[in-house]
Design brief:
Cytochrome p450; five-stranded mixed sheet; 8% strand
Length: 403
């Protein structure tokens, strides 16, 4: 079986069975090659840890190509003009910038989003997590996703941006983010694109209003700090705020829910000791990766396992496969080990696109897991959960629990 046949036989991102458990398919891909052409998405699938890690750092690839080539030069069609609001928002964010623009914006944003910023959020995160878990316990259980996992990171970002509690738009942060993130799935539909465009317009408009307010009345929030970085344009500030919400909350929501589903399914609990709990959270991030795939364009020909991947191609780096690669994590790569000490997972990426919000995501995760262990030690599943259909950002519709 050649690489293309192996991919077609194993990889099926629109199949509910595959989305529920892609890991056996990943094992087949790893066993049959280092690069697999997948026709339905016109991508090269890369399943091995060492290759994924190296290509994340390889400057012959990029999240975009427009810093070096026109669409015509790269052999690609320009995006649909009707989708322009989404692309304007997305293309000015750190995740999809390359070259000098990326270096400049990451350096400037890092001045505002510092480790000290995250440290100062610790009391707020603890208070929010304790309150949300307390409400779940008082109700005798419910949907862990809707009652705890989703509200926490959205509330934290709202606090960072100092979004007034009376603003109606505060309740729209999660729906806006979900609509925008729909565009990151494989071959998104036109209906998905329309929702993403509408959310991009509405969210951007609201952030412009907030920026105008903070210009006249600055505070201690992240928007005021970004305004203080004079070299950032307004669009770059808007895109940065949206990226922090989208990237930050998706990892926290899906790792909280899939993590507890994994724990309950295995009948285990992490040790609440802070250091051991941190180790357990890293293992949950590795074991069932919230972002299964990260795509990059090939800017100059590369060779992988004897296969030449030409300029203009797109590679799909399979994070979920890499994080269970026995070549890096040993014979227990497919097992849950809450005490795994050697755990260089790539859930937050690597290289210049390493997640700027990773420290905040780790703070939120360790805090909410600690609160659930403290307040709901008898937590148990109330029903088998239903998965969302998306593959790239993989999660559940809900997680019903009893406490």
């Amino acid at each position: 079986m050649d690489a293309a046949d192996a991919a077609d036989a194993a990889f099926d991102p629109w199949s509910p069975d595959f989305v529920a458990d892609p890991y056996p398919a990943y094992a087949r891909l790893r066993a049959t090659g280092r690069a697999h052409w997948y026709g339905p998405t016109r991508q090269w699938l890369v399943p091995h840890y060492d290759d994924v890690s190296a290509l994340l750092r390889d400057r012959r690839l990029g999240r975009t190509y427009t810093h070096r080539f026109s669409h015509e030069e790269f052999g690609r069609e320009a995006p649909d003009a009707a989708h322009e609001p989404f692309h304007t928002l997305n293309d000015h964010g750190l995740l999809d910038l390359e070259g000098a623009d990326h270096s400049r914006i990451r350096r400037l944003v890092s001045k505002a989003f510092t480790p000290r910023t995250v440290e100062l959020l610790t009391p707020t995160v603890r208070e929010l997590a304790a309150g949300l878990v307390g409400d779940l316990v008082a109700a005798g259980g419910g949907d862990l996703q809707a009652m705890v996992a989703e509200p926490l990171p959205v509330a934290v970002i709202a606090e960072m941006l100092d979004i007034p509690r009376e603003d109606e738009e505060r309740a729209m942060l999660r729906p806006w983010s979900a609509a925008i993130c729909g565009m990151f799935e494989l071959n998104p539909s036109e209906d998905t694109a329309r929702r993403a465009v509408a959310a991009s317009i509405e969210f951007s408009s609201y952030l412009r209003q907030l920026i105008a307010r903070r210009r006249s009345e600055p505070g201690d929030d992240l928007i005021s700090a970004l305004i203080g970085v004079a070299e950032l344009t307004e669009q770059e500030m808007i895109s940065t705020c949206v990226l922090l919400l989208n990237a930050g909350h998706e990892a926290t929501v899906n790792t909280t829910v899939s993590g507890w589903w994994t724990l309950l399914r295995h009948g285990v609990r992490p040790d609440p000791d802070p250091e051991k709990l941190s180790t357990a959270v890293e293992e949950l991030l590795r074991y069932d990766t919230p972002l299964q795939m990260f795509e990059r364009w090939v800017l100059d020909d590369i060779e992988l396992g004897g296969v030449v991947i030409p300029r203009g191609a797109e590679v799909a780096l399979l994070f979920g496969s890499a994080n269970r690669d026995p070549a890096r994590f040993g014979p227990t790569a497919g097992e849950l080990d809450l005490g795994r000490a050697d755990n260089p997972h790539i859930t937050f990426g690597a290289g210049i696109h390493y997640c700027l919000g990773a420290p905040l995501a780790r703070l939120e995760l360790t805090t909410v897991f600690a609160e659930l262990l403290r307040q709901a030690p008898g937590i148990r599943l109330a029903a088998e959960p239903e998965r969302k259909p998306g593959y790239v950002i993989r999660g559940f519709e809900e997680l019903l629990v009893e406490v």
